[in-house]
Design a protein that fits this description.
Bound molecules: FE2/S2 (inorganic) cluster, fe (iii) ion
Shape: globular
Order of helices and strands: EEEEEEEEEEEHHEEEEEEHH
Number of strands: 17
Strand content: 25-35%
Largest sheet: 7 strands, antiparallel
Strand order of the largest sheet: 11-17-16-15-14-13-12
Structural class: alpha+beta
């Protein structure tokens, strides 16, 4: 079985879209192989299976009418909780088929994203981000990128400083020494934390050698919070949600939080830089096999691959039920 087919992954919260994508019409997303429709009604966002119970048309191709989502095929209307509210071919007082529900998934808005959990009993939680919307910090919402690789391969890439000098030789890895320290990695209640320092050849809008001192939190299973400190006091926090759409296909949603201002570094520079960086990763990651190996004996490793091995050990324990996350704040 491919890693992302493990049932435990259905029990986590995943960002599936930016809130800004949900202004007027329902939208379609995939999550762990399920088609999901998202829409906003009465001020809240809602998520449901993207199949009308009548003839299974895609609800995401429909529209909104008052607080109802309307199926594009025969116009059946459903309320925010997924109950059938109207069949336009019938008189208003006619009884409706009581079991014909659209259904619903758990859904909430946090940090500018729409989060969905496919299971009614979620494990773990949503990361604590004290800097988000705090005084002295600004948020730079970024993009969504599609990767043709598995979600664990994408989160692994973000824990792996050994690729920087090669994959990112067109951006921040240009001319940097490929010899790296072995990063330290620890388990936490919510997942993993890694601390490492690496030399880099630049940062958004600047081409100068500097050093990144990064604390990386991996919130189970595939959400990364990277707090990158630079010697001049700039802190650049990257939120990277690696949301598994299906086996071998992952949606990366990304935002940045910084303690500087638009005048110090325009958001456009940050977006342009990160777009290039993600394209560099995508060129390699899209060529990896769909099947992500959890066994250490699959593939070969050196001592600098310690974070990768620990990630795989931890994911294996998660899939076997030997490790269960809690949503305790960062300690
Ligand atoms: Fe949705 Fe008929 S398929 S109303
Ligand atoms: Fe990379």
């Amino acid at each position: 079985m491919l890693v992302t087919q493990e049932p435990v992954f259905r029990r986590f919260w995943y960002p599936v879209a930016f809130e800004r994508a949900l202004e007027h019409e329902p939208i379609h997303r995939r999550l762990l192989g399920e088609d999901v429709v998202l829409w906003r009604a009465g001020g809240t966002v809602n998520a449901a299976p993207d199949r009308c119970p009548h003839r299974e048309a895609r609800m995401s191709a429909g529209w909104l009418c008052d607080d109802h989502i309307v199926c594009p095929y025969h116009g059946w209307e459903f309320s925010a909780d997924g109950a059938l509210a109207k069949v336009p071919q019938l008189e208003d007082d006619a009884p409706l088929p009581s079991r014909a529900r659209l259904g619903s998934y758990l859904c909430q808005e946090r940090y500018g994203w729409v989060w969905v959990c496919l299971d009614d009993e979620p494990l773990g939680g949503i990361p604590e981000l004290p800097e988000y919307d705090a005084e002295g910090w600004r948020v730079v919402p970024e993009y969504e990128w599609m990767f043709e690789c598995s979600a664990p391969a994408l989160i692994e890439n973000n824990l792996d400083p050994a690729h920087v000098a090669f994959v990112h030789k067109g951006t921040f890895g240009k001319g940097v020494d490929p010899r790296i320290e072995v990063p330290s990695l620890e388990r936490t209640a919510y997942g993993l934390v890694r601390r490492n320092k690496i030399a880099v050849a630049g940062r958004p809008g600047e081409d100068e050698m500097t050093e990144r001192d990064t604390t990386t939190e991996i919130w189970a299973p595939f959400m990364g919070v990277f707090r990158i400190g630079y010697p001049d006091g700039l802190v650049h926090i990257m939120l990277k949600a690696c949301t598994p759409e299906e086996d071998g296909r992952t949606r990366l949603l990304q935002q940045v939080i910084r303690n500087d201002t638009e005048a110090d570094r325009p958001a456009a520079d940050i977006l342009a830089f990160d777009d290039k960086v993600e394209a560099e990763d995508k060129d390699v990651l899209d060529t990896l096999p769909v099947d992500y190996p959890l066994e250490p004996t699959q593939q070969f490793h050196t001592r600098v691959d310690r974070p990768t091995l620990e990630l795989r050990r931890w994911l294996k324990e998660l899939t076997l039920g030997q490790w269960v996350p809690t949503n305790e704040p960062v300690g």
